[in-house]
Input
Amino acid sequence: MVERIVRQVALEYLGRGSSKGNVSELVVQTSSRHMHVCREDMDVLFGPGAELTFDRPLFQEGNFAAKESVTIVGPRSRIISNLRILGPMRKQSQVELAFTDAIMLGFNDLPIRLSGDIKGTPGAIIIGPKGVVELKEGVIRAAIHAHMSPAEAAHFGVKQGELMKLRVGGPSGVTFNNVHVRIDPTSRLNIHMDTDEANACGLHLTKDVELFK
Ligand SMILES: [Zn+2]
Output
């Protein structure tokens, strides 16, 4: 407790927003529902050879929001249209929903998974402007996670796949206990949560965030 207070005071003294040695400022972001698409599904949904159109960059180098979107049809035949596609293309298609989105579509116990870990997850019908794909699996709630570089992981004393805690302050403060660590040399310190998690803690109303073991 004392250590945390000291660290908090020290951080405030150093000023949030400045880089501290090997560790970047903690950026916590909300990830809205979206889809990642593979080459084969892209061909069906948008036409053979179609490419994603760059709309805006995402925080992690090389990732971007595309202009393309699709419609997802859930198990109760309810739909969400304007499901945005994030690039670049991946080996497997995947849909990431917040729990509210999932329940609305009829997925009442959608598994929480890390991106890419889709074995045994539910599928859905995806409708694009040029065709329809039936995903056999790949619909998930994305687990809250922290991207970081190896140097940042060393600073926190954590390894790939470990869990950390994220404390969000402010009037509706929440501490998330299962923040998955994802280490990559190309990553910058950055936490991704979904819209339900962000709304629950009023993320947009506070700058008081702290990641710890
Ligand atoms: Zn992420």
Notes: Confidence is low (pLDDT under 50) at residues 14-19. The pocket of zinc ion is lined by residues 145, 147, 192 (CB under 6 Å). The two ends are 13 Å apart (CA to CA).
